[in-house]
Write a structure and sequence with these properties.
By secondary structure, this protein is mostly helical. About 70% of the residues lie in helices and about 0% in strands. It has helices at about 1-15, 20-30, 35-50, 55-60, 65-80, 80-95, 100-110, 115-130, 145-160, 170-180, 185-200, 205-225, 230-235, 235-250, 255-265, 270-275, 280-295, 300-310, 320-335, 340-345, 350-360, 375-380, 395-405, 415-420, 425-435, 445-455.
């Protein structure tokens, strides 16, 4: 049909006009579209329709993935128009699609190759930066801009690893640098953007130092604007340690401590001998200052903040070794903050730390909100310490929590009853079984519990 229309328009163009010049002038004034425009439109439409048979577009259309089918439909509707094609390619980039796929899309489209994968990635990064800055950039739905950025960076990383030469790490750094250096923007997203980039690429030594300087500057300008830094201040562990000690000494307020934690996370982990030192580990030093300098009326909040800080390090290169966890737990306990101290110990899978936690539990004479909550009870059950808590005031709370919060595959009342019986606690084992099976409290006598233990376990 499109071919027929093209032929018809060509005949109109080639047909000699028999109208007088006044009619021609009137037609030209009334019409905004000429036959030549119509011909160009139809020819481009035909060329675009022919690309729909390209193997790449057909593969998208026949894919079992809904998102790839969506790309096929969008391409069909784009007519290879540069604006629509650009928006589709940027959307694909924001979805974390491979750069080679985006390159194929641009190559299939009709028209001059005015768009490149590099242009597309730059536009995608610009949208992410706009969203991080509080703008209303379209990221393809209500999505976390940092997660979107991770996907874009991962796609570039994969492309670089394959040697495609489409976009380089230096390109990304150049596009992100203005945002990351903008003091008017919030510190955390700027730091996270730099961390995403730093974790994804093996940057040159110069770029790595620059990246670390950017991170440091972003934090210092938000909290210690008068303190200027340069590359020399962060290029070695000794210099970074001196800067940290200087800022730690000057810190008194919660937001200063928070930014010191950000600073430590922005830097490489300390060497082994410092990381394992109970007194020299920078995280232990920071927590110590937080707890000893903080206002007494905010003691519980500070304890929770120290716990949150330590938990934020799980699974990272900064994760605290067992001896430092034990040191921090002792520090929390010395400040009458047993609840976060127990959680810190029980978070670990280290048996020695569990033994330390059990010692603290055993020393408790009365269970209250300062030493027990639902999370601590769950952590004790996860650590399989129910049997060893039988003689403590925590035991009845553990049993009630176990029965009130069944967790199939995590805690099993019958299995735990078996452990109790093996440890010689037959009455407790039977009582737990009776309660788990819904036996009325009036029937849960000592003899009944013993009988249940011997019969069921």
């Amino acid at each position: 049909m499109t071919s027929t229309a093209i032929k018809a328009v060509k005949r109109f163009i080639e047909k000699p006009r028999k109208r007088n010049s006044e009619e021609d002038i009137q037609e030209a004034g009334d019409s905004e579209v000429t036959y030549a425009d119509a011909l160009s439109h139809l020819e481009k439409s035909l060329a675009h329709l022919e690309t729909l048979d390209h193997s790449f577009i057909v593969a998208l259309q026949n894919s079992e993935q809904e998102i790839l089918q969506k790309y096929s439909r969008l391409y069909d509707l784009s007519r290879s128009e540069e604006g629509k094609l650009h928006d589709q390619a940027v959307a694909m980039c924001l979805d974390g699609q491979p750069l080679a796929m985006i390159q194929q899309l641009l190559a299939v489209a009709v028209g001059p190759p005015d768009l490149s994968p590099k242009d597309i990635v730059q536009s995608a990064v610009t949208r992410v930066v706009s969203a991080l800055s509080g703008g209303s950039a379209d990221l393809g739905g209500p999505r976390d801009p940092l997660q979107v950025l991770e996907g874009v960076v991962a796609a570039v990383h994969a492309s670089v690893d394959k040697g495609e030469g489409l976009v380089s790490p230096e390109d990304l750094l150049e596009w992100l640098r203005p945002f990351c250096a903008d003091d008017a923007r919030p510190v955390r997203p700027r730091l996270h953007a730099l961390q995403i980039l730093g974790q994804s690429f093996h940057l040159s030594e110069e770029d790595s130092r620059l990246l670390m300087l950017f991170r440091t500057e972003a934090i210092l300008k938000a909290t210690w604007p008068q303190r200027q830094v340069d590359v020399a201040d962060v290029e070695s562990e000794e210099r970074r340690g001196s800067l940290f000690a200087e800022l730690l000494e000057a810190s008194r307020r919660p937001h200063e401590f928070q930014h010191l934690a950000l600073l430590l996370q922005a830097w490489p982990p300390t060497r082994q001998e410092l990381a394992t030192s109970r007194t020299e580990n920078p995280w232990v030093r920071l927590a110590t200052v937080m707890l000893t300098r903080g206002a007494r009326e905010h003691k519980e909040a500070l304890g929770a903040e120290v716990l949150e800080m330590c938990r934020s390090l799980y699974g990272t290169k900064h994760m605290l070794p067992a001896q430092c966890v034990e040191e921090l737990s002792a520090l929390l306990q010395s400040q009458a903050l047993l609840l976060p101290a127990l959680k810190l110990l029980l978070d670990s899978e280290d048996e020695h730390l569990h033994a330390v936690a059990l010692g603290q539990v055993t020393a408790v004479t009365q269970v209250n909100d300062s030493n027990c909550d639902q999370e601590v009870l769950s952590l004790l059950l996860d650590a399989k310490l129910l049997v060893r808590c039988v003689s403590t005031p925590f035991y009845p709370h553990l049993v009630r929590h176990l029965l009130a919060s069944p967790q199939p595959g995590r805690w099993d009342a019958e299995e735990l009853a078996g452990h109790l019986r093996e440890a010689g606690h037959e009455a407790e084992a039977g009582s737990l079984l009776l309660a788990a099976r819904g036996t009325h409290r009036a029937l849960r006598t000592f003899s009944t519990a013993l009988g249940a233990s011997r019969h069921w376990v």
